[in-house]
Design a protein that fits this description.
With about 375 residues, the protein is an alpha/beta fold. The protein has two domains: about 180 residues, D-Maltodextrin-Binding Protein, domain 2 (3-Layer(aba) Sandwich), CATH 3.40.190.10; about 130 residues, D-Maltodextrin-Binding Protein, domain 2 (3-Layer(aba) Sandwich), CATH 3.40.190. It is built from eleven helices and twelve strands. The strands form four sheets. A five-stranded mixed sheet has the order 3-2-4-12-6, sandwiched between helices. The longest helix is centred in the middle third of the chain and has 24 residues. The N and C termini lie far apart (about 50 Å). The N terminus is likely disordered. Bound molecules: 2-acetamido-2-deoxy-beta-D-glucopyranose (3 copies). Keywords: Signal.
Amino acid sequence: MFRIQPFVASALLLSTCVAAYDNLLGFNGAPEVEARTLDEIYEAAVAEGGVVTCWHGGDEAMQQDGLKTAFEARFPKMTLNLTVDLSKYQDGDIDRQLVRATDDLYVDSIILQTLHDYPRWDQEGGLLHYQPLDFYKLYPEFRDIRGAWHATAVYPWTFTWNTDRVADGPMEFTDFLKPEFKDKLVLTYPTDDDASLYAFDLILQEFGIEWFDALLAQNPLWVRGTQTAATLLFSPNSTAAATFTSIVGLSPPAPLNISIPTKGHFNTWPQRAAILKDTPHPEGAKLLHNFILSKEYQRNTGVWSVRRDVPAPTGFPELIDIPSTDPTEFQRFLADRPRVERLRFFFESKLGTPQGPSSVNDSI
Ligand SMILES: *[C@@H]1O[C@H](CO)[C@@H](O)[C@H](O)[C@H]1NC(C)=O
Ligand SMILES: *[C@@H]1O[C@H](CO)[C@@H](O)[C@H](O)[C@H]1NC(C)=O
Ligand SMILES: *[C@@H]1O[C@H](CO)[C@@H](O)[C@H](O)[C@H]1NC(C)=O
């Protein structure tokens, strides 16, 4: 039977008013609950075509190479067709995919930083309600009860420094104001990345505008892309020594080292994943999501797991035992778009607009 797609309906609404697109009162939202083994899902995914297209948020194309390698090593008959780009650009392209309806939809899985998009996409009827294996092993805050989305990993914005360039790494936010960090900080524009904006919001609410004025006096290098900050900490051509706007995992390779502060708050958030409802490769997408949530994968992400039964990486407390971060707060921050915009324009007035091409294309 021909069924009008909710997104087509929304487009038609302006002219013809044929149907509502909000799914709230459509009910029947119970999820499909996975009962097969990984290998059984693998078999179904191979039969379906052996490919899954995933858009993953990030700021360098190589950032999820580890996921692709691990997935294809575990499932050699599968191809993970992966695109990494800024979540804030990918989400608009997802909207455009959805509005053009089923025939044109080619993305199966979306794993993005824009957490606030997911409730909206779900309300619009765009997301598959699906509970992968071990769904209830995830912390409740890291999953939608009807399986519209779940988290994949908790990304921490630790303090990160190059031990060859600075003797004592920063332990608290106030340490970034010490004379040894003058001309040696590399930071991601808060006007370019909402995760950076949130980090600065947390810091300034705690330490005041005076902290920010003193930070500016340190003459930090502002860059697009969190990975770019880490790259410059490594690069022999750079003098950058420390940052608090990057993710290098909890056990980074030498000469990098990290710390987490005890005063104020640093940003951690659960990256969010969903399967599009009318995806061309539902089995491939299910395989990918089950693989990412499997204990074997969760143990090796180098960051905190979204599963309750996978302990924190060696040497670190459990996330819920760290008072200086709350991984559930970022979604609240993101969902308040007027507040986000006011903050962004405040920082734009101090720093100007982000300069240079997107970090995905800038060859740094
Ligand atoms: C791989 O992904 C790209 C970009 O998302 C898409 O254009 C292409 O159709 C996908 N390929 C396959 C085989 O699905
Ligand atoms: C350092 O700079 C030189 C000269 O511009 C360049 O050839 C080289 O690729 C750079 N190295 C890195 C790691 O960026
Ligand atoms: C890394 O920093 C921690 C403090 O966060 C410190 O205890 C440890 O000794 C440092 N490791 C290296 C190799 O410098």
